[in-house]
TrEMBL record:
Major place of residence: membrane
Membrane topology, as annotated: Multi-pass membrane protein
Location in or out of the cell: Cell membrane
GO BP of this protein: dicarboxylic acid transport
Database matches in PROSITE patterns: NA_DICARBOXYL_SYMP_2
Protein name: Proton glutamate symport protein
Key words, A-Z: Cell membrane, Membrane, Symport, Transmembrane, Transmembrane helix, Transport
GO molecular function: symporter activity
GO annotations of cellular component type: plasma membrane
Transmembrane segments: 9-28, 48-68, 80-102, 156-173, 230-256, 313-343, 355-380
Any Pfam family hit: SDF
InterPro entries per the UniProt record, alphabetical: Na-dicarboxylate_symporter (IPR001991), Na-dicarboxylate_symporter_CS (IPR018107), Na:dicarbo_symporter_sf (IPR036458)
Amino acid sequence: MKKKFKFPLAYQILAGLILGIIVGAVFYGNPGVEKYLQPIGTMFLNMIKMIVVPIIVSSLILGVAGTGDMKQLGKLGGKTLLYFEAVTTIAILVGLLAANLFHPGTGVDMSSLQKSDIGQYMETTKEVSSEDHGILQTIVNIVPTNIVDSMASANMLQIIFFSVLFGLGVAAIGDKGKPVLAFFEGTADAMFWVTNLIMKFAPFGVFALIAVTISKFGLSSLIPLGKLMILVYAAMIFFILVILGGIAKLVGINIFNLLRVLKDELLLAYSTSSSETVLPKIIEKMEKFGSPKDIVSFVVPTGYSFNLDGSTLYQAIAALFIAQMYHIDLSIMEQITLVLVLMVTSKGIAGVPGVSFVVLLATLGSVGIPLEGLAFIAGIDRLLDMARTVVNVVGNSLATVVIAKWERRFDDGKREEYVNLYKNHSADSPA
């Protein structure tokens, strides 16, 4: 019997990405591109956002109710946050080291750079500052006053807090909780089916979003900031292969096997510059990769607020780039201050739109770097955001394996079987 040819999702997304770049470059400066294609990209992103909250709530409640042990959950939470803090600190240090070694801002002619409006980020920073987002306030904000409102605004930490407590409650009432568990099990299965359906629309969403982005700033605007872009991308690749690859090796995992399994999601995250678009599939795949449901359901959403490796690495490079552009020589103490401030602010305002820019605006002043410098790199921020999104996704995926190994609950047999499926079949993501 003749084998039916399948065009894998990764290639479909890649085709959408390439076509989008071509269309955006050909119609550079044409407002019609945004007018007609933006709705397609927005619809795709909205469809993904629509399913994220139900998947996280149902998966987490199922996982926690299955564990049902407050002490074990507390231990899991402590280990997760400790790991996140260690890795994000390494990311900041890698960013500072890269910027100090290669000096991307030295010799940049500021008159050749196009300034972009950063007013929206300034407004967000003022709102964030007025709410006093320190460490204690962040802890207070984890507890929701209205869970429906938290779900509507997709506040991950508040959703996790509620789901964990609800899952413990379901476990505590024994047999009475079985119908509730059956409901959430059905919800999770249904939402994963919906996710697979929405993913068929991904190539069109990617095509539209990239075409709009390229048509807005054009490829020529990249030349003056080429050194910064090359350094950011090189640092991101180094971080994935060397730092995350080293961590993976320590826990007995080959980073290339993980990248192979996540290739569709990484391409989609890169194209849309949104980690949210792949969150449901990451949860699904990391369970199949060998991490227990409760660990994946807890670690991945928490990582979206506390484990932004790519974002913190970029923030460190961008801060020094602006300092070098203005001929400001930061001392070792000032750079240490920058590391400490970034460690706090990158957690304190997690979840805010344009978080990397907002964090930079909130921290640059602490070491005397002019905030106006961000206006010079705002134009290419979308392209830099694409790279840091990939690192965030890989970092959070690997975190589930590290924590599962740390808890001695990782299933190596399951992982080997799942990786072999990807090695032996070039078809779309296996079920």
